[in-house]
Amino acid sequence: QQYICFKLGNFERYGLPYHAIKEVLLNVTPTPVPNTPAWIAGIINRHGLLLAILDLKPFFHITSESRDSRSHLIVVNTNGITCAILVDRIEGSDTYNPKNLEASLVADGAINPKYVIGLHQGLTAILNIEALIADLHFNQ
């Protein structure tokens, strides 16, 4: 299966399977929304639709230097919800075989294992975007 690879922070590499991706937007400035959780970076108007911009860094407890005001977004559609994921850098795309993925490591304070399908070549955590969006949507 194909996925797009991106970075959060300086070292964390993640992948999103193509089946959930609608488009990739570069150099977009989200509008901040007051009184929202830390993982909501703001909103954008895309083709007349307001999209919530999700910042997974606070959700995954990733710290890094401050982000540029113009961001890279991956627009996803899953569980009947369309939103965008804020990323630091798009690394490209690759393919993986679900049968060959390594199990993710479990550690205190780390990402919940249900959000990771597995590790591709030990470097890229392939995200279970369906589980992630479902939990973000219902844990507001």
Q: How would you characterize the overall build of this protein?
A:
It is a single chain. The protein has helices at 56-60, 129-138, and strands at residues 2-8, 12-17, 21-28, 40-46, 49-55, 71-78, 81-87, 89-95, 116-120, 124-127. By secondary structure, it is mostly beta strands. Strands 8-1-2-10-9 form a 5-stranded mixed beta sheet, with no helix packed on it. A 5-stranded mixed beta sheet has the order 3-6-7-5-4. The longest helix has 10 residues, at 129-138. The mean pLDDT is 87.
List its traits.
mainly beta; five-stranded mixed β-sheet; 140 residues; 47% strand
Radius of gyration (CA) equals: 14 Å
Strand coverage percent: over 45%
In total, how many beta strands? Answer: 10
Sketch the major β-sheet: 5 strands, mixed
Structural class: mainly beta
Q: pLDDT under 50 segments (min length 5)?
A: none
Shape: globular
Reconstruct the topology from this structure:
Layout: E1 2-8, E2 12-17, E3 21-28, E4 40-46, E5 49-55, H1 56-60, E6 71-78, E7 81-87, E8 89-95, E9 116-120, E10 124-127, H2 129-138
Parallel strand pairs: 2-10, 5-7
Antiparallel strand pairs: 1-2, 1-8, 3-6, 4-5, 6-7, 9-10
